[in-house]
């Protein structure tokens, strides 16, 4: 009996020991598992930090000082070249890459070197200096100086103020009707005089240039025999000109809107199918409408000194064009359809970001004798590779020789541009 009791106690003690041992092992396993979990998280965190560090090292950000402003350039690869950086700066500064001098820590950066080799790192500050003339559009984008408006006292008196409003006497009105010519340039006009509308179908030529006219009302359409309209150097804006009235002038051959505040040309421009000359220089135009293709009689297109970045491919349908001036814009390329302009004699493209020309420009434009490429990225070495270059060069030389024979100053040699004057 006593032995059985001892045996039972021994069994219970053994079970208790095994249970405690099992619990200890489970607790140990849990601790080990938790430790492994913490170590794994630490490794993952280190890996993430390492990846982030690698990502930071794979792209850098720099600041470029130019014209009183600081231009931030982000996400640059350390393996990209200084030339790549200059290309990025071109649209931000309007300075062509070959006109940019980048200086870092007193040293001039070389085009072929990488940012890493140039010792550029995150936050590096570079100074940009622009060579004179080597720009696109209207020139380098500089910080606008804040100036106080100058208020001048007007001491001309009441009589002079009244004279600013041009009075149209009966004799002048009759003369306008008889000649068909309304000449009111430099008359300090702020509005078009009502007497002009009285001329009706008699008006053929109107010159309102060099005034302060803001509005071109729909009544302009009542002068439906007009052939030439000059509105140069006024304050005309998109919303103040009645294009419906202007484009209803079906006999209009010359439209001149230079030096105004226009940003767009309407699609209805294509309705002026008799137009031979379109002058829209020195505005703020960003493009040309595709409807320009309907102007099949257009001979002269002058759209220089704007903000035009692309030319529609349908420009090739304007096959009567003989002179095109697109200088001082933001063009990086021309459409291949330029080769369709078989009558083109003069092409001005200076001060643009152009790097090449349409491949058929010399082989198909067989009348071309004047080409201005000053201050672009195009070089003579590149042009010599074009088909038809030799024939163009011969035509240009013959033209120059004729000018020299008549004692007209001209360039005898072709450089990066030609015959600018």
From TrEMBL:
Biased composition (Low complexity): 24-33
Annotated ranges, domain Ubiquitin-like: 60-132
Database matches in Pfam families: LRR_1, LRR_8, ubiquitin
GO cellular component terms listed in the entry, alphabetical order: cytoplasm
SMART domains given in the database record: LRR_BAC, LRR_TYP, UBQ
Ranges of Basic and acidic residues composition bias in the record: 46-57
Domain of life: Eukaryota
InterPro entries in the record: Leu-rich_rpt, Leu-rich_rpt_typical-subtyp, LRR_dom_sf, LRR_domain-containing, Ubiquitin-like_dom, Ubiquitin-like_domsf
Region feature (Disordered): 1-57
UniProt feature, compositional bias: Basic residues: 1-19
Keywords: Leucine-rich repeat, Repeat
Name by which UniProt lists this protein: LRR repeats and ubiquitin-like domain-containing protein At2g30105
Lineage: Eukaryota, Viridiplantae, Streptophyta, Embryophyta, Tracheophyta
């Amino acid at each position: 009996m006593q032995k059985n009791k001892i045996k039972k106690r021994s069994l219970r003690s053994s079970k208790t020991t095994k249970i405690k041992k099992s619990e200890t092992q489970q607790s140990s396993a849990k601790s080990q598992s938790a430790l492994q979990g913490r170590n794994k998280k630490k490794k993952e965190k280190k890996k993430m930090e390492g990846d982030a560090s690698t990502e930071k090292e794979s792209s850098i950000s720099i600041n470029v000082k130019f014209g009183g402003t600081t231009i931030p350039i982000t996400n640059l690869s350390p393996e990209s070249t200084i030339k790549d950086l200059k290309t990025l700066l071109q649209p931000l500064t309007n300075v062509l890459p070959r006109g940019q001098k980048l200086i870092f820590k007193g040293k001039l950066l070389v085009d072929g070197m990488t940012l890493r080799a140039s010792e550029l790192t995150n936050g590096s500050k570079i100074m940009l200096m622009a060579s004179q003339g080597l720009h696109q559009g209207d020139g380098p984008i500089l910080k606008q100086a804040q100036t106080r408006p100058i208020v001048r006292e007007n001491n001309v008196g009441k009589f002079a103020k009244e004279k600013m409003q041009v009075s149209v006497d009966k004799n002048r009105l009759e003369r306008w009707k008889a000649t068909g010519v309304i000449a009111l340039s430099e008359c300090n006009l702020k509005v078009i005089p009502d007497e002009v509308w009285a001329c009706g179908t008699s008006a053929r030529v109107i010159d309102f240039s060099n005034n302060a006219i803001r509005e071109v009302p729909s009544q302009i359409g009542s002068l439906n025999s007009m052939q030439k309209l000059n509105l140069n150097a006024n304050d005309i804006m998109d919303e103040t000109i009645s294009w419906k009235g202007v484009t209803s002038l079906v006999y209009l051959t010359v439209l001149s809107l230079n030096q105004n505040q226009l940003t767009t040309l309407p699609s209805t421009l294509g309705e002026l199918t008799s137009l031979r000359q379109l002058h829209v220089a020195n505005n703020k135009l960003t493009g040309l409408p595709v409807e320009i293709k309907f102007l099949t009689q257009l001979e002269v297109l002058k759209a220089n000194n704007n903000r035009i970045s692309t030319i529609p491919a349908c420009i090739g349908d304007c096959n009567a064009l003989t002179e095109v001036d697109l200088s001082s814009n933001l063009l990086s390329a021309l459409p291949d359809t330029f080769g369709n302009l078989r009558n083109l004699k003069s092409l001005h493209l200076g001060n643009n970001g152009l790097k090449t020309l349409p491949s058929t420009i010399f082989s198909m434009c067989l009348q071309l004798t004047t080409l201005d490429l000053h201050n672009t990225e195009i070089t003579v070495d590149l042009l010599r590779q074009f088909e038809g270059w030799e024939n163009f060069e011969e035509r240009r030389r013959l033209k120059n020789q004729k000018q020299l024979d008549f004692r007209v100053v001209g360039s005898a040699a072709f450089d990066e541009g030609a015959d600018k004057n």
